[in-house]
Amino acid sequence: MGFHIVVCAGIVPDPLLTLEPVTGPQGPALKNEMMLPAVLDPWAKHALFEANHLAANTPDSKVWLVSMAPKTKLQQVMMSIAQKASFELVALDGPASGFTDSQAVAEALADAINCINGIDKNRLFIFGGWESASRGAGATLQIVGERLGIAEQFQGVDELRVTDSGGLRILERVEGGLHQISHCDGPPAVLGWATGNLPEPPNNPQVGMANMRTLMPSLQKAKPAGVEVDGKTFVNVEVPKQRRDTRIVKDASPDDIAREIVEWIKG
Amino acid sequence: MRADSVDTVLYLAHTQSEGALSKGALEALTAARELTAQLGHAELVAAIVGGDIQHAADSIADCGASKFLGVSGEAFAQSRYVTDAAAIEAICRAAQPAIVICGSSSRFNRVLPGVASRLGGCADLHATEMKVDAGNVFVTRWYYRQRIRAALTRDKRPWFVALEAGSYAPHSSAGGSAAVESVPVSLPEPGLRTNVEGLQKPAGQTQTIRPDANLLFVAGAGWTKKQADGEAHIQDAETIILEFLGKSQASLGGSKSLVDISGTGQAVLSFMTHLNQIGQTGAIPRHPRGLSTCCHGEEPHAVGWRFISERRAINLDANCGWAHGKADVLYVADAFEVMRKVNALLGNQ
Which A residues in the span 16-75 are in contact with B, Cβ-Cβ below 8 Å? Predict the structure, then answer.
């Protein structure tokens, strides 16, 4: 029997953009946030590719992508990601801001997962990034798991292998550039992915066309997600100024530079 | 905003494989002590989770905690969600803390948000500072990959805060003898579904990540590009970098571009993996010094630079916009040539 894999993925501003915080009526936000080009969160994108890979190699498996963002932004991002992996979108119309609290987001995601028709929790994987490139909390997936009653949780995952006996062999990143190896007897489990080992798949128009059949209806019927700030107050949100007075060493010989570097390292 | 009514600050730690506390855990103890002192009326309680915790408790016996709680035993020697969550939940129910402070680690980062949710509280991982202002507790952490810094306060309790390594000086202690009160823990029936087999290095890789190193050596994609003679010299680059890492005991970081080119079929440094990446989807290491070679200087290409105190770069481009204003010194030179000389000097000393 295959797996039911739910990938939780947010959208984030393009990582190469310069961001400027502003204070809005709901608290901190990004200047021109709705105008900023967005991408699927990089870690969650890895999770989606891993989910797709696992489903492709396990018959009778299915992948759902659960994402909360303003509908129009989500639609833009889906146009590009839908050509790279097969999934059924479960869209939630809500904020994608990094300043939204992870508890509130997790509750909305868990509720949406609970409402997916036909999902089998005995063969369920919750996938996602181990943190996001917006909030960077590293907290949302764990809370989703708790809300769904899943106590087998792994974070910083780089590899998932299903053994011949149906068990799971999981590699998680730990300190010092090492991996912790765990064996779990099977789903349900929560896996927060680091980068994994898979390259980004090329665009496949056929996959995109197939996804489109469910994408647009899902976006059209996306429910507004109630994400309320619960007792959290930001008092200072800023881009720190860290300009340094750079000394340019142009005409020194490699010997002189090396000597200076060694003295600095040993200093 | 209300003044904080914190009665108990719980310092939470886990042992490492040899039974001691990590440097990050001792840094968090400094933060917990400082916060307790700033609050004035609060009590500091220490709690440790691990296989055998007595040695760790003794090592911080004089930290000022009013009591020591502990969860120990074979099941808690392993870093695993279900047992760690049960242990921390039991400790929190016993201590009834308002604030829980610990050092960031893969083990605690995996479990704290779930436990906080279970207890009706909240959690902030990757915090870099805690302070009390007008009776309220504030936490500072970064958003959008270290591009925006924010201070925030919360009403929910318990409030779990995991502090990033390098944010505080480690607590130094003469040690002593701690009386640890054992906290009973109920593990789920019918038994544990996950077993931890152990740790492994990435297959066939040289160990190049050293979190406690004084120097972060950052290699950029330039090491794999064609050099002045029109040829790429990957083998030379590998030899130079590995020799330097061996002699200097530096930790190796890689830019996202360098790690990513492995996916495009280009020749790469064989020992460079995603674990080394300090760019957009990489780690955020904290080291006193950083030397960047053949790559851009700072964010967003290598956001890890943000937490490097002294930064120098070797780059052929004197006008590199990523180094100007971000590195302390920019050496306009060929990194192959300079690093060979550096290796020679290090070898002679």
Answer: 16, 18-19, 21, 28, 30, 42-43, 46
In this prediction, residue B300 carries a pLDDT of 44
pTM of the shown model: 0.88
Residue A44 pLDDT exceeds 80:
yes
- pLDDT at residue B19 above 80? yes
Give the closest-approach CA distance of A90 to chain B in angstroms: 23
CB–CB contact A19 B125 (8 Å):
no
pLDDT for B232:
86
Q: Cα separation of B282 and B303, whole Å?
A: 8
How many contacts (CB atoms, under 8 Å) link A and B? Answer: 262
Question: Per the structure block, which two tokens stand in for B172?
Answer: 């130094």
CB B303 within 8 A of CB A220: no
Say yes or no: A13 contacts chain B, CB-CB below 8 A: yes
CATH number, residue B172: 3.40.50.620
Give the domain-ending residue among B182, B207, B235.
B182
Cβ-based neighbour number of residue B262 at 10 Å: 17
In a domain, residue B58? The reply is: yes
In a domain, B196, yes or no: no
The H-assigned helical ranges of chain B are 23-39, 54-59, 81-95, 106-118, 234-248, 256-260, 335-347
For residue A258, tell me if it sits in a domain: no
ipTM, two decimals: 0.93
Residue A201 belongs to domain with CATH number? 3.40.50.620
pLDDT in tens, B203-214: 656 778 887 789
Q: How confident is the model at residue B146 (pLDDT cuts 50, 70, 90)?
A: confident
